[in-house]
């Protein structure tokens, strides 16, 4: 492998430090191929070029946070879909379908059905009422200082958990695919994402996301077509073959381990559906379009592309069931070579050869970069806009200072992300994405939805509901089987469900309602009146910026 | 606020479809894996149907909402606007 990598032009100092032999085999096929290294470098050069181009067009707060509001609906839809088509979704769901079949598909459908919820309940009102972040909407009618602190805090906590999972995944993936040491991969990803966001702001982040979405959809479509070609373009033949080969037989066509317990399945479904509507980096994108029409159009594009993506992953996952077993290059005595997350990469190799696998590896790297950049942008905006400009420097904000704080926050988040990526090396962090969705569904979604649609919500209700949702999501995740038993090694969980959303989101709504209806304060009355004022002042034409 | 009830109704419909799929696969695994169309089982057919439903409802909603708002923007006042704000 070392010889192959050297032949491909990778410096000896960047060669893999001590990967498992199986992982080294994967790197030899992906990273060792000259084409994949060339594409890998092209991805970095292209994204840096985009950042340089965007930096020249990013001068104001509006540019930095919302790309000047000049992103069209189609482009924003591509970027939204790109935010969701993460490496975790591409590699993780195909791996899940390969391992347990239908559970993986049901999991992926949960992501799709989150989009209509955003459309019906959140997007258009958010676009009319907000400016840069979802906490703008809360500050519109509620006491600004406390709700901004609450919104920014829950945003940062959500982003932190999401970012840790992405960084650790990035380090492991780049090590496996390109043979780079884990630490080098983490620093590389951290430096690149910081550069995109600090210099190019939302414009660079959006275009990086668009490029990656096009590459990923193109690559996955090609892979799925090549898989189907093996079966005469017949899903019947594909499914028949998968059932015949998988050790679980036709059990891969129905509820597996994840769905066996209906309550657990529905709780996870709640986190996926409603968590989408509370993720700060997704919500921020609705401020990059010119008006409500474009915001709606962008959701149509996003849900259509993500639905296509799920169908492609479904094809690739069941294709993996039929194509990988029996070939020692892909499945050894200890399971999938390089780990289960390499299933999609092995399928790329099986149907398109090592050059195609190298291409998909480079696309996976671009995917990681784009997603962590979106998260970093959202976190830095929470610090500079929600906390610094709106809470600490209220009415005394100088735009130049706010931009400086944004860039400093971006660098700070980049450094923290690198540190956390190194700290959590070799830790099981898979639960953190689920936790991020549970927090978004339990803390952000109830408060945001009620602030925009229920006159009775008061500041006290928002604070109680948001805090209870945030606290219960974290506490119940820690007490659940994934962390309490599998990570901390205890005998039995304190809370029976893997995903706490069915309880924590209900507690979030209950907290908002109970603390609001019992609020007899003058502030509560002002909050209720503020709802009428909010509707009145935001009733301009839909075509208005 | 016009159409807020419709928004909640549509959201409830999407929830019912998805959670119905999860409950069906979980409670009736034998039926879920039985053949629906050729070799395709009910579980996969229903999962794909939920995806199609989610996309179709979003597209229809956006068509109606954008058409209503375009009409409202073209005439004085905000009467007829999709959400009224």
Can you describe this structure?
- The complex is a heterodimer of chains A (545) and B (85).
- Chain A has one domain: Sodium/glucose cotransporter (Up-down Bundle).
- The termini of chain A are far apart.
- In chain A, a hairpin with a 2-residue loop joins β1 (331-332) and β2 (335-336).
- Chain A has 21 helices and 2 strands.
- Chain A has helices spanning 2-7, 21-30, 34-55, 61-66, 73-84, 87-100, 102-129, 135-141, 144-178, 182-229, 235-245, 262-276, 280-283, 292-323, 343-392, 399-423, 431-453, 459-479, 481-487, 501-517, 522-537; strands at residues 331-332, 335-336.
- In chain A, α5 packs parallel to α14 (292-323), α7 (102-129) packs parallel to α12 (262-276) and α15 crosses α16 (399-423).
- Chain A has 545 residues and is mainly α.
- Chain B is mostly helical and 85 residues long.
- Chain B has one domain (4-74).
- Chain B has a two-stranded antiparallel ribbon.
- The longest helix of chain B is centred in the last third of the chain and has 33 residues, at 42-74.
- Chain B is elongated.
- The termini of chain B are close together.
- At the A-B interface, α7, α11, α12, α14 and α21 of A face α1, α2, β2 and α3 of B.
| Helix segment tally of chain B | 3
Largest sheet of chain B: 2 strands, antiparallel
Task: Sum up the overall morphology of chain A in one term.
Answer: globular
What is the SS-derived class of chain B? mainly alpha
Largest interface: A-B, 56 and 51 residues
Give the low-confidence spans of chain A.
1-21
CATH topology of chain A: Sodium/glucose cotransporter
Shape by Cα distribution of chain B = elongated
Helix content of chain B: over 70%
The tally of helices of chain A reads 21
**CA gyration radius of chain B, whole angstroms:** 18 Å
- Total individual domains of chain A: 1
Number of discrete domains of chain B: 1
| Rg of chain A, nearest Å | 23 Å
| Helical/strand content category of chain A | mainly alpha
Task: Output the CATH class name of chain A.
Answer: Mainly Alpha
Give the strand content of chain A: under 5%
Spatial arrangement of strands, main beta sheet of chain A: 1-2
Number of strands of chain B: 2
CATH architecture label of chain A: Up-down Bundle
Strand order of the largest sheet of chain B: 1-2
Pfam family, one (chain B): DUF485
Transmembrane segments (chain B): 7-28, 40-62
Keywords (chain B): Membrane, Transmembrane, Transmembrane helix
InterPro entries (chain B): DUF485
């Amino acid at each position: 492998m070392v010889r192959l990598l050297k032949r491909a032009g990778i410096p000896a100092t960047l060669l893999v430090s001590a990967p498992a032999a199986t992982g080294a085999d994967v790197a030899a096929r992906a990273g060792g191929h000259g084409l994949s290294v060339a594409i890998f470098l092209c991805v970095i050069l292209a994204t840096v070029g985009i950042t340089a181009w965007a930096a020249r067009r990013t001068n104001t707060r509006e540019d930095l946070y919302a790309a000047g509001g000049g992103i069209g609906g189609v482009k924003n839809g591509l970027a939204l879909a790109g935010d969701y088509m993460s490496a975790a979704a591409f590699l993780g769901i195909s791996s899940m379908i390969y391992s347990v079949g239908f559970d993986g598909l049901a999991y992926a459908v949960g992501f799709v059905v989150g989009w209509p919820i955003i459309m019906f309940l959140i997007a258009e009102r958010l676009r009319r009422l907000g400016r840069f972040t979802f906490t703008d909407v809360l500050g519109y009618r509620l006491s600004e200082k406390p709700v901004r602190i609450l919104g920014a805090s829950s945003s940062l906590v959500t982003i932190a958990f999401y970012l840790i999972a992405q960084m650790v995944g990035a380090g492991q993936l780049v090590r496996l695919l390109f043979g780079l040491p884990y630490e080098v991969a983490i620093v590389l990803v951290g430096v690149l994402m910081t550069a995109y966001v600090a210099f190019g702001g939302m414009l660079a982040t959006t275009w990086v996301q668009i490029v990656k979405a096009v590459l990923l959809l193109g690559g996955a479509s090609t892979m799925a077509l090549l898989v189907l070609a093996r079966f005469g373009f017949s899903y019947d033949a594909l499914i028949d073959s998968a059932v015949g080969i998988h050790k679980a037989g036709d059990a891969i066509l129905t509820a597996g381990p994840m769905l066996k317990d209906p309550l657990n399945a529905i709780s996870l479904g709640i986190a996926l559906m409603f968590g989408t509507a509370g993720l700060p980096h997704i919500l921020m994108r609705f401020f990059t379009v010119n008006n409500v029409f474009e915001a709606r159009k962008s959701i149509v594009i996003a849900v259509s592309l993500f639905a296509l993506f799920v169908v492609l992953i479904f094809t690739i996952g069941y294709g993996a069931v039929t194509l990988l077993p029996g070939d020692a290059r892909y499945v050894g005595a200890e399971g999938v070579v390089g780990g289960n997350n390499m299933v999609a990469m092995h399928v790329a190799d099986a149907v398109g050869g090592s050059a195609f696998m190298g291409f998909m590896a480079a696309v996976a790297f671009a995917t990681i970069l784009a997603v962590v950049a979106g998260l970093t942008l959202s976190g830095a905006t929470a610090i500079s806009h929600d906390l610094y400009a709106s809470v600490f420097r209220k009415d005394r904000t100088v735009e130049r200072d706010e931009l400086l704080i944004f860039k400093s926050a971006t660098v700070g988040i980049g450094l923290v992300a690198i540190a956390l990526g190194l700290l959590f090396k070799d830790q099981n962090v898979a639960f953190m994405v689920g936790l991020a969705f549970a927090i978004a569904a339990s803390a952000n979604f109830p408060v945001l939805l009620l602030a925009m649609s229920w006159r009775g919500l008061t500041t006290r209700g928002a604070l109680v509901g948001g805090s209870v949702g945030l606290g219960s999501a974290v506490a119940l995740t820690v007490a659940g089987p994934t962390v309490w038993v599998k990570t901390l090694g205890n005998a039995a969980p304190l809370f029976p469900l893997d995903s706490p959303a069915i309880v924590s989101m209900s507690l979030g709504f209950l907290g908002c309602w109970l603390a609001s209806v019992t609020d007899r304060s003058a502030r509560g009355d002002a909050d209720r009146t503020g709802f009428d004022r909010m509707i009145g002042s935001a009733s301009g034409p839909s075509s208005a910026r | 606020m016009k159409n807020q009830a419709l928004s909640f109704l549509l959201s409830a419909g999407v929830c019912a479809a998805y959670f119905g799929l999860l409950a069906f696969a979980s409670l009736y695994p034998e039926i879920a894996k039985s053949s629906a169309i050729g070799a395709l089982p009910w579980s996969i057919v229903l999962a794909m149907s939920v995806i199609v439903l989610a996309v179709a409802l979003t597209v229809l909603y956006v068509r109606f909402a954008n058409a209503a708002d375009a009409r409202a923007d073209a005439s004085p006042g905000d009467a007829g606007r999709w959400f009224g704000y």
